[in-house]
Write a structure and sequence with these properties.
286 residues, 3 helices
Length: 286
């Protein structure tokens, strides 16, 4: 009940503020265009979903409301605009996700056990997972509308690249003494019979680009603050690189490394509607 009262108070505050602004405009005071972006303005967008969900849950007496978060559009994608004119803007999207994770597992030290069968010494096997994912997009946007209700449309280009790799380092070397040493199973297919993987490149390594068009609508609830959403159409070409795997095995005389190609690579060309392209968002202009 308390949360409902808070929400109703917030709603009445927004409504009264909008009504007061309309009264000022009708009496020849501040122009409604003060709400709208102007040439030279910069805008940053965030997802409205977490905030709308928070207030929506308040109405159904949900006691587990997560605090509203300022999330960038499309997950980790930064979305911004620069207004060349009052009704023309350049839009930019950028995403960078870089991971470098190291996992370690103890295994028996085979050489120590060979020298002393009672040895309880351990050594470490290590898996290193690295990935990079980058995206950049540039759009040209044009606008038109009536007072605080603004429609917009345009198009642009988008480029992306992704790379994923696993590398393995083993504490026990293959040798004539221990041709098949104890090896950690990381659950990634790094053990293949009596062979073990030293490196893999993910089959999803790719680069690509394409064109996209969009159309959307915004309503300026406060000066320079809007809520909106859009639909889009994209034509994207993606090239998936050849992938390889490096394995190690004992051939009876020595440790041998062998490189095998696991995927010859693929190409895709897709035309898709994006509904919605950006979801429901808030846009802040300054």
């Amino acid at each position: 009940m308390k949360k409902l009262k808070i929400f109703l108070a917030l709603f009445l505050f927004v409504a009264s503020t909008s009504f007061a602004q309309n009264e000022v405009n009708q009496q020849g005071g501040a122009d409604a265009s003060n709400y709208l972006p102007e040439a030279g303005d910069i805008a940053i967008g965030i997802e409205a979903g977490p905030i709308l969900q928070y207030f929506g849950n308040m109405l159904n007496a949900n006691n587990f409301n997560a605090s509203p978060a300022l999330q960038f559009l499309n997950g980790n994608t930064i979305f911004a605009k620069y207004f060349l004119e009052d009704d023309v803007a350049i839009r930019a999207r950028f995403r960078a996700i870089v991971n470098n994770d190291v996992f370690r597992i103890y295994v028996p030290d085979e050489l120590a056990r060979f020298n002393d069968p009672l040895s309880r010494d351990l050594t470490v096997d290590r898996r290193t997972f690295t990935s990079q994912n980058y995206l950049i997009g540039v759009d040209y946007e044009m606008r038109r509308g009536y007072n605080r209700l603004q429609g917009y449309y345009g198009g642009g280009v988008i480029f992306s690249i992704s790379n994923v790799k696993n590398t393995y380092e083993y504490g026990n070397a293959m040798s004539e003494i221990v041709p098949n040493p104890a090896t950690a199973n990381f659950g990634t297919g790094n053990i293949i019979g009596t062979s073990r993987v030293l490196e893999t490149k993910n089959a999803n390594n790719n680069y690509g680009g394409g064109l996209n068009g969009f159309i959307g609508v915004e309503y300026f609830i406060f000066p320079k603050i809007s809520i909106g959403g859009e639909f889009g159409l994209s034509l994207i070409y993606t090239h998936y690189s050849r992938t390889k795997q490096v394995v190690e095995y004992w051939d009876g005389f020595q440790s041998v490394e062998e490189v095998t190609m696991t995927n010859p690579g693929n190409r895709t060309l897709r035309a898709t509607t994006v509904n919605p392209a950006l979801g429901i968002y808030f846009m802040f202009h300054f």
